[in-house]
TrEMBL record:
Residues 38-57 bind DNA. InterPro entries: Homeodomain-like_sf, HTH_TetR. This is HTH tetR-type domain-containing protein. It holds the Pfam family TetR_N. It comes from the Bacteria. Gene3D superfamilies: Tetracycline Repressor, domain 2. Residues 15-75 form the HTH tetR-type domain. GO terms for molecular function: DNA binding. Keywords: DNA-binding, Transcription, Transcription regulation.
């Protein structure tokens, strides 16, 4: 992904201003949705003039692109932590499951994700960006599952893809459940999600023996 902005003498200031705009945009998208939040509204929330904001982002679509890139960088950081932790992949992923549940039940953060998904249905560029992010997330997950520390390292590509897609679907669906059932808690979800995830991260033929 690339960004077009005017040249500035101080790269640190540019980055600070871009972050300021992205934070303001995220706040506006949460409150008003993608289409309800115009560049003027984002500029006001960021404490900038409407003209000033274009020094850092040429359009609202460019802001969405940067938000998706931020999410990707956060995802890469999480996978990097998984890869650097000692021990088997099953233990590492199950030990971090509560963090994933927290993130996917955060209605403030996820409402932006949902809005971007809706935008992707009518905006090919946003759809392409989200598809790229999903592809990279699945690739990183696949690398974990075929590593020497994984019980699934010898499984076929088709089976790994099936398991990864089911895992991602379960996690992504938590936001919708939280929206429809606000009383839902992380602890309640983990009662069923932890054994379900354990099943998906183990060879089916040895699952009963291990459990």
């Amino acid at each position: 992904m690339t960004h077009k902005s005017k040249r500035h003498a101080d790269p640190a200031l540019v980055e600070a201003r871009r972050t300021q705009v992205l934070d303001a945009a995220a706040d506006c998208f949460r409150r008003k949705g993608y289409h309800g939040a115009g560049m003027a509204e984002i500029a006001r929330t960021a404490g900038m003039s409407a003209g000033h904001i274009y020094n850092y982002f040429e359009s609202k679509e460019a802001i969405i692109e940067s938000i998706i890139e931020q999410d990707m960088q956060e995802m890469f950081s999480i996978f990097q932590e998984f890869e650097e932790q000692p021990g088997d992949i099953l233990t590492i992923l199950l030990g971090s499951l509560h963090k994933g549940v927290q993130r996917h039940m955060d209605t403030g953060a996820c409402v932006i994700d949902l809005d971007m998904m809706a935008e992707a249905a009518r905006n090919n560029k946003v759809a392409t960006l989200l598809h790229e992010a999903d592809t990279q997330a699945r690739d990183r997950m696949r690398q974990l599952l075929i590593s020497d520390r994984s019980l699934l390292k010898s499984h076929s590509e088709q089976e790994l893809d099936s398991r990864i897609n089911v895992i991602f679907s379960m996690m992504a669906g938590l936001f919708l459940r939280k929206m429809l059932y606000p009383e839902l808690t992380e602890e309640t979800v983990l009662i069923a999600l932890r054994p379900a995830m354990k099943t998906l991260l183990m060879p089916f033929e040895v699952h009963d023996e291990v459990l």
